[in-house]
Amino acid sequence: MTDTTPAPRLHRLTVDHLEAPHAVTRTAPRFAWQVRADGGAGVAQASFRIRVVDLVEGLEVHDTGQVESSQSVGVALDGFEARPGGRYEWTLDVQLNQGLAPLTATARFGVAHRDWSAPWIEPQQQPVVAEGPTNPRPDLVVDAVKTVEGVPLSDRLHPPRRLRHEFTLAAAPRHATLRLTSQGVHQASLNGQRVDDALFAPGYESYELSMPVVSTDVTALLAEGDNVLGVELADGWWAGRISFLGRSAQYGDILRASWQIEIEHEDGTTETLVPEPSDVLSSRGPIDWSDIFIGERRDARLEEADWCAVGFTPSDSEAWTPCAAVPMDIALHPFQGQPVRRTLEVPAERVWNAPNGDLLVDFGQVLAGRVRLTVTGPRGAEIRLEHSEALDPDGNFFLNVTGFAKDQADEYVLAGREGGETWEPDFTFHGFRYVRVTGWPGELRPQDMTAVVIGSDLPVTADLHTSDPRLDRLFLNTLWSQRSNFLAVPTDCPQRERAGYTGDLQIFADTASTLMDVQAFLDRWLADLRRDQANRDGGVSAIVPEPPAMGGDFGAGTIFGEIRTPAGWADAVTIAPWSLYQHYGDRQILEDNLDAMRTWVAFQTRQAAEINPARLEAGELSPEQAARHALLWNGSLHFGDWLAPSTMVGFDEMPGDAILRAPQWTSEIVAPAFQVHSMDILANVEQELGNREEAEALRERAAAVRAAFAAEYIGADGEMRPDLQGMYVIALAFDLAPQAVRPRLVERLVDLVHAAGDRLDTGFLSVPFLLDVLWDNGHQDLARTLLTQNQQPSWLYEVEQGATTVWESWYAVHPDGAVEEMSLNHYAFGCVIDWIMRRQAGIEPTSPGYRTVRVAPDLEGPLSHSAAHLDTPYGRLAVTWSRDGDTAQIHVDVPVGSEVTVDLPAGWSAPSDLPLGQGTHALAATRI
Ligand code: BGC
Question: Could you tell me which residue ranges the Bacterial alpha-L-rhamnosidase N-terminal domain spans (predicted)?
Answer without folding.
Answer: 173-343
